[in-house]
Amino acid sequence: MRAIARRHAYVMVRNPHRLFDVSLWPLVDVLLFGSLGAYVGTANVSGPQRAAAYLTAGIIMWHVVYQSQIALSTGLLEETWTRNLLNLMVTPLTEIEYVAGVALFGMVKMVIGLSVMVLAALAFFSFHAWSLGFGLIPVAAVLLVVGWAISLFVMGIVLRFGTGAEALAWGIMFVVMPLSGVFYPVSALPAFLHPVALALPTTHAFIALRGLVNGNGLDGGQLVLGAISAVVLLALGFAFVTHMLTVFRKRGLVTRYS
Asked: pTM for the whole thing?
């Protein structure tokens, strides 16, 4: 029994990302729900209906980021799980063609997932997502680009460090979510996290979304800030995954998956 316990302890120590289960995720939960409680507990919320609209609209639009990121990331992981990565590497398929193909399929999955959520919100909570207007479309576009950018970073890390890093595919979004102010304004976060939150393109997209929920129309300034930072993040993601792919080929790391 001690040997089994030690065996798993060694695995955790040698794979620091496995410590996320006992360190980072509990911290994220406290941050997310603590900030949510701090926001709801203030007088800034004009009423329970407004808070409910923030929550419902926030979780629906958050799935744009989540679905676009998870589709790309698990697309690569699927090739590693099925030992198909080596086959792809010897085909004329370019990296951009591969990413575009997976992203295309991911968009189909995202549309299906969002449709389910919009219909469920309407059926269960009488929340009409389209009542927010066409401003939802540019907000969703920014969030879509952010999801793709994050997935490129995840793909680069998986190429470099192997499937042991695949937990990032699911876990990284739960770090970004509370910092983005999906359900509450950034002011509800601890003060020292405000600069981090404002550096994220998702934060500006959700500020623009809350403007729609409040009936104030689309905040063009916040949307432009979010769009610019999302494009910059996407460019950095491409540069990172391209570099990791070069390292992957030079060191023959593809043998991990053959």
From this structure: 0.80
